[in-house]
Specification:
About 45% of the residues lie in helices and about 15% in strands. The longest helix has 28 residues. The chain has 7 helices and 7 strands, in the order αααββαβαβαββαβ. The chain is of the alpha/beta class. Helix 1 crosses helix 4 and helix 2 crosses helix 3. This is Transcriptional regulator HdfR. GO terms for molecular function: DNA binding; DNA-binding transcription factor activity. Keywords: DNA-binding, Transcription, Transcription regulation. Belongs to the LysR transcriptional regulatory family.
Length: about 220
């Protein structure tokens, strides 16, 4: 089966509009319609009901949808895996924006400086949410994930790289804790567990952020 037909089917099912699907796929609307007809002819069923601009999946289309998504994800993973056999010198590293900010950017800079131009080794640094990176790792689209929470999957091997020291800091040590505004770092459940030992449950943060680079200044 032509993966382009499945790709077109998924885009039409997402947008529920042939024109918008054509724009997203950089195709003409007639080309999108032709691909859908091809897929319907191959399967021997109608996948969409069309009434003016109202496009809906048929029962057959609803049944095909999860299989089409799985097939496309598998195809993308296969392409990535095959590409790795011919470009084995590529290595992708993923982490959340907060980890890149507070510790990994400096490490990546040192890695860049130590790299020999003739080595042919290429690094790719990816910034995304943890859930997205775990999915990429599971689909073999990411080589290394650096995270504060180890994925709970048996097929992954993990190694401890270091420790964080969590503490409360303020720029005015002479003031009482109750007089200070609380800035909270949102770094996931592991950090929240430790936070409960430092902050009262009724303590309301003035600002919540996932960025390690936030530096509030007095007005």
């Amino acid at each position: 089966m032509d993966t382009e037909l499945l790709k077109t089917f998924l885009e039409v099912s997402r947008t529920r509009h042939f024109g918008r699907a054509a724009e997203a796929l950089y195709l003409t609307q007639s080309a999108v319609s032709f691909r859908i007809r091809q897929l319907e002819n191959q399967l021997g069923v109608n996948l969409f009901t069309r009434h003016r601009n109202n496009i809906r999946l048929t029962t057959a289309g609803e049944k095909l949808l999860p299989y089409a998504e799985t097939l496309m994800n598998t195809w993308q993973a296969a392409r990535k895996e095959v590409a790795h056999t011919s470009r084995h010198n590529e290595f992708s590293i993923g982490a959340s924006a907060s980890l890149w900010e507070c510790m990994l950017n400096a490490w990546l800079g040192r890695l860049y400086q130590l790299q020999e131009p003739q080595s042919g080794l290429q690094f790719e640094a990816r910034i995304a949410q943890r859930q997205s990176l775990v999915k990429q790792l599971h689909e073999r689209q990411l080589d290394l994930l650096i995270t504060t929470e180890a994925p709970k999957m048996d097929e992954f091997s993990s190694q401890l790289l270091g420790h964080f020291t969590l503490a409360l800091y303020c720029s005015s040590p002479a003031r009482k804790k109750s007089e200070l505004n609380y800035l909270r770092l949102e770094w996931g459940p592991d950090f929240q567990q430790h936070e409960t030992g430092l902050i009262a449950a009724d303590e309301v943060p003035v600002l919540t952020t996932s960025s390690a680079e936030t530096r509030p200044t007095a007005a």
